[in-house]
Amino acid sequence: MGTCCDWLSSLLPLLSSLPSHPSLQPSNTALPELAAAWRAGFFAEIHYRFEHKLPAEDIDVTHRRVLDRLLAERSVGLDAWDDEVRQRLVSGWHDQKGWPDAAPALEKLRKKFFVVVLANGTTKLQLDIAKSSGLPFHMLFSSELLGFTKPDPEIYRKALRLMGVEPQNAMMVAAHAYDLRAAKTVGFKTAYIYRSTEDVDEDMQAVQNDVDVFLDGRNGTLECGLGALANLLDAEENDLSTR
Ligand SMILES: *[C@@H]1O[C@H](CO)[C@@H](O)[C@H](O)[C@H]1NC(C)=O
Ligand SMILES: *[C@@H]1O[C@H](CO)[C@@H](O)[C@H](O)[C@H]1NC(C)=O
Asked: Signal peptide position in this chain (predicted)?
């Protein structure tokens, strides 16, 4: 979510189709702002849970709680957006499209590498997003399935053990700097994909210094982001496999 999929473009049509409300007109910036605040609120909540060692929570439950809070702040009551509407929105996160570069790049990469998802969340969410996006992953590793949550180093180690891959032969690819910084401590190579929707508060200069490969994935062409990564690994294949 974010690295391979464009959650914002996936969610906006659904948001725009909902009953209009004085504080949420489809024509202004209120809906994109709501979507961004929802994503940020979700991150803040799961970060809080991790810091306080609380058990992981189903993403739908967290999304619903954050949505209720954001709508209350905007004076959108249950009379305007009722329970059914809110549940439809929460389910919207299960239905995502890939960024334009994602599918062709994964097709190319999967011929040479195991291409797997390693992400927080439930396996059900990953299955739904894999199905709606059509992205051709070999395997979906969720925090639910592996029993650890990012950025716990154990989740990265467990994924490697399950694949039978040594860390120096693995690359973590993400649009989230904290994730790459954690993977690096385990010995992964790291590739950062810069996406317009992710890491909006990160210092990108610092990120560039911390990762092995930094790729801009924002211009919407097939050559950006994951496309650039696929080309790079194609060219550097021998070099990378001996490092
Ligand atoms: C993964 O979960 C951890 C802990 O809950 C959180 O800090 C982090 O932001 C999450 N990352 C993603 C991409 O969901
Ligand atoms: C888009 O970004 C990629 C990767 O940074 C770059 O190679 C490509 O030239 C860019 N294309 C356009 C049209 O800006």
From this structure: 1-17
Q: What is the pTM of this model?
A: 0.90
Rounded-to-integer distance, Cα 150 and Cα 135, Å: 22
Task: Give per-residue pLDDT as tens, 205-240.
Answer: 999 999 999 999 999 999 999 999 999 998 876 555
Give the pLDDT confidence of 75-107 residue by residue, as tens digits.
999 999 999 999 999 999 999 999 999 999 999
Q: Return the ligand number nearest the Cα of 178.
A: 1
| C-alpha to C-alpha distance for 67 and 164, rounded to whole angstroms | 40
CATH classification number, 102-241, choose in 3.30.470.20, 3.40.50.1000, 3.30.450.40, 3.30.565.10: 3.40.50.1000
Q: For ligand 1, is residue 50 a contact (CB within 6 Å)?
A: yes
Ligand 1 pocket, residue 43 CB under 6 Å: yes
- Which atom of ligand 2 is least distant from the CA of 228? 4
Distance 220 CA to ligand 2 centre (A): 8
